[in-house]
Amino acid sequence: MPDEGPDAWVAPINIGEPDSAFVPANTLVDDGQEMTVLGQRMQFFTKYGTDDKFHTTVWLPDREILLTTMLWSSPPQLYSLRGDSFRDPREWIAGLRQNLDLEPEVLVSAAARPLVGKEKNPNQGSDCSANNNSAP
After folding, report:
1. Angle subtended at Cα 19 by Cα 15 and Cα 22, rounded to the nearest 5 degrees
2. Global pTM?
């Protein structure tokens, strides 16, 4: 905002320019890449996304923990009102299948409640299960 003129602040503001909260990644990962961080083995999956173009699922194989944003409490936003590119639901389904194939003991999602215990897998025996080979 300008300091003077019709578009200036109504009252003087003594706040300077805010510092950026952006922190660039210091280690970029590829789909399927494995690494050990602080003694914890991790595997990263970046191939499939949901409502964004940049998605990372993290698998902790020694603890059978999956950290993902692929699982939502409802279907993801496959159509963007903002006019973003088409989001192919087949890609989301393939990502869900990849998550199921890992058979996590703990599933932590950014958009739904965590699931603990393989027996609580909501997709076991359903048409979305990893064993269904009828879909692309």
Report:
1. 150
2. 0.67
